[in-house]
């Protein structure tokens, strides 16, 4: 049974997809801890409801740490859980080089865009606007290993997501989130299969 630590910043719908897949036996894994950089993230309640340790770790400025100091605290919180994978599922914070090296090959991220397209924040909105300008025909979702860049690590899985002329931004967001839930679970399952 693989051990997963999930990092979140908000609502936690991707976390819920992982918890549900573990519960159904689709993932031979267990979420051993959920950490949020926002103390009021609803995803922490999802963890509590599932009987998983829910750890609020407020943003570094609130802890009076610099970025490297925050990463050190985060690593020390994670280490005792001995994760096989650290899953960034809506974690809205760049992990620094020290953290990435410490858990090299174990950190994966879900990003609502295709490789090389719309890195960082507001990716869905950027794709929607690019479609409106006629620059792209579709967008997508990827799961990738975290390296020292922003959404640049080796790709594990991708899936295209169509954009329709009648779409509102909300329509596209809903379609992408649904795809995220499916792709993230499939990507974790494939990594577990490869490592077993």
The CATH superfamily appears as Formyl transferase, N-terminal domain
Secondary-structure-based class equals alpha/beta
Overall helicity: 25-40%
Listing every helix as H and every strand as E from the N terminus to the C terminus, the arrangement reads EHEHEHEHEHEEH
Instruction: Bin the strand percentage.
Output: 15-25%
Tally the beta strands: 7
Main β-sheet description: 7 strands, mixed
| Shape type | globular
* CATH structural fold name: Rossmann fold
Mean pLDDT: 95
Question: What distance separates the N and C termini?
Answer: 10 Å
Computed over alpha carbons, the radius of gyration is 16 Å
What does this molecule look like?
- It is a single chain.
- This protein has 196 residues and is of the alpha/beta class.
- It has one domain: 3-Layer(aba) Sandwich (Rossmann fold).
- α1 crosses α6.
- The longest helix has 27 residues.
What is the fold's blueprint, element by element?
Blueprint: E1 2-8, H1 13-24, E2 29-36, H2 42-49, E3 54-56, H3 67-78, E4 85-88, H4 97-102, E5 107-111, H5 123-132, E6 138-145, E7 155-162, H6 169-195
Parallel strand pairs: 1-2, 1-4, 2-3, 4-5
Antiparallel strand pairs: 5-6, 6-7
Helix pairs in contact: 1-6
Q: Outline of this structure?
A:
The chain has 196 residues and is α/β, with parallel strands linked by helices. It has 6 helices and 7 strands.
């Amino acid at each position: 049974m693989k051990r997963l630590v999930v990092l979140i910043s908000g609502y936690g719908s991707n976390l819920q997809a992982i918890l549900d897949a573990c519960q159904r036996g689709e993932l031979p894994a267990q979420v051993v801890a959920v950490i949020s950089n926002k103390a009021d993230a609803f995803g922490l309640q999802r963890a509590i409801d599932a009987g998983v340790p829910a750890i609020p770790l407020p943003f570094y400025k609130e802890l009076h740490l610099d970025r490297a100091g925050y990463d050190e605290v985060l690593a020390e919180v994670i280490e005792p859980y001995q994760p096989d994978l650290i899953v960034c599922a809506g974690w809205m914070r760049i992990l620094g080089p020290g953290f990435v090296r410490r858990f090299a090959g174990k950190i994966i991220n879900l990003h609502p865009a295709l490789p090389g397209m719309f890195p960082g924040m507001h990716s869905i909105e950027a794709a929607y606007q690019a479609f409106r300008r006629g620059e792209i025909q579709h967008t997508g979702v990827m799961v990738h290993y975290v390296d020292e860049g922003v959404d640049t690590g080796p790709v594990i899985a991708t899936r295209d997501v169509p954009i329709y002329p009648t779409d509102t931004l909300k329509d596209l967001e809903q379609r992408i989130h649904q795809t995220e839930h499916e792709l993230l679970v499939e990507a974790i399952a494939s990594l577990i299969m490869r490592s077993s």
